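Predict both folds.
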Amino acid sequence: MAAISNLVMALGKSGDNIITTRHLFGNTLSLFEKTLQPFELSTRFTDLTNPKSVIDQIDSRTVAIFFETITNPQLEVANIEMLSKVAREYNLVLIADTTLTPPSVFNAREMGIDFEVLSSTKYISGGGTSVGGLILEYGSFDWSTFSKTRQLYEEHGSSAFNVLLRKQIFRNMGACLSPHNAYMQSLGLDTLDLRTERSTANALQMALWLENHTAVQGVHYPGLKSSPFHEIAVKQFGEKPCSILTFDLESKKHCYAFMNRLKLARRSTNLQDNKTLIIHPYSTIFAEYPADQIEAMGIRDTMIRLSVGIEDIEDLLEDFTQALR
């Protein structure tokens, strides 16, 4: 959240607007919808899968398009090529939250993304050892054309935005990763690719297994052929696009009972840990919103979110089998 808020405050000013969707992580949505509003930095929510809907929201004060490569927990997959084309045509900064698609799965630079933000608490830390966030700039935006950096560009060239971010927003707001956390996360990088390969492979197997279980009402995973986002997900991220999936049971009561019976998977709001983690999004990360708004965001009280870890898949399936009885 520090990475997202620092970046957005560095880009925008009073009267500007950012285009995004309501299909966002709960705290990101709260930042855009509530925290930034008193500063008159507004957010325009639209359907990011429809290019016309995006273009219709753009005006002279639009500074950026913000999206999640795979939304959490709706698992909607963005058409990044389309969003990049719109951003280039209208000279907008394109920001992607790539938390669900780490660097070993996805090359943001090649897809025309200007900024990548991600929670390094997840895949990078490995095992939930530390909390952090990252802003990655790819040098693809012309800062000589941007109002807040035009003067800085004359002195610093392509580093203009980096200077603005570091010497004003980042330094003054104090959202600095501690040295120890930075060290712990650098250790996590050593095994990032290994852990990603194992957890995404487990997620695909788990999704296929759940899809055929009689107690499960529906499974949502972009790697499944039944997903409406399968084709675009495979094109952008490969056959195993992420380690997150959701599935529905008969009722909220069934969801709670199922989670209580699990012995190996743990209840936790973290993602992409070494351990398999499970959560009921409706009653946790979206609990601050009224029921009609939660449902409008595509969150059901029958939905369970599963972050699949690196355990032996047979152990996980055994645990889920006994919990779903």
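Second protein follows, with its predicted structure tokens after the sequence.
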Amino acid sequence: MTKRIMISAGEASGDMHAANIVNALNKMNDSLEFYGMGSTNLRKANMDIIIDCADIAVVGLFEVLIHYRKIMRALNTMREMLRNNPPDLLILVDYQEFNFKLAQTAKALGIKVLFYVSPQVWAWRQHRVHKIGKVIDMMAVILPFEEKFYQDANVPVRFVGNPLTDETRPNKDKASCFSEYELDENKTVIGLFPGSRRGEIQRVLPIQLEAAVKLVAQKPELQFIIPIASTLDREIFIPHLSKYPQLNIKLVKDLPYNVMQCCDSIIIASGTATLEVALMGIPSCITYRISPLSYFILKRMVTIEHIGLVNIVAERGIVKEFIQHEAQPQDIADEIIRTLDDGEYRIKMVNELNAVKDKLGKTGGIDNMAELVLEMLE
């Protein structure tokens, strides 16, 4: 009999992880059907997209309030789908608040729930772990320290491995990318990675561009490149880039790892990409900014020292973080210059990034997750 799986992936990284799982599952079992919320990558994997998550990918409490009606419409649509077209298994990928509410509905309907990519309950509001445990059948975690956290709370959990160890690799050689992106191989390339959400482009990209201006003042020969996330369109970048005609910026729609391998250093928004850059072994610094109200509230709730995933996994600050009011263009530029010119500092950072790679474990996370899905379907 055909088994039906509903997936809820709310952001670009979740869309990519979920698509890789779907592709792995299709190789193991060709009688599965997939439908739900996702974007470009899940669409390419032939999932029936009910909601395009690009429309509701936001971060920050204030930002969620602004888009609240749109998010609730999407949630209600997914809830109705659970009621009227119930799956054999619901797979929730990250996007914690939305997916927690969806899990509540699924649990009430007697639908099995598998949560993939743990909400960061270990970072703030840790008491939520018990609420999560009541509405899911299994938590599949991708960071090694998360397994014990859930075990201690008596929540069914399995460490499946980090999917990034499988996914984080280019599919083109470096020389081909330099040619395709019209970059000069003899000149230094700085990556500007502002994130995958529209709000991040509005808040983070201007800081990165101002830092680029400071960098060019010290090193006029620098080249810059910006990858366009699968959930975004080129047009959203144009108003920002048009303000800086003096910058030599390439805007690229391609696999982010192809772009990363061309970079000597990267200014990156906080998020999954900080781990991807670490796995590629590229020195970087982290920038981030959310609304003042969101920051004011979250600052008092978060209990961990760092916000960058690369630093959280390392359990120390190996990559500098420039967050909120500390995200000053000159400071960011100075850090990038140091990663380029201070050989000892650069080598030390690369070695620490390799240690993070070792902590994330070996490849095989996607197949482990696919096998867990089949196990739950049986």
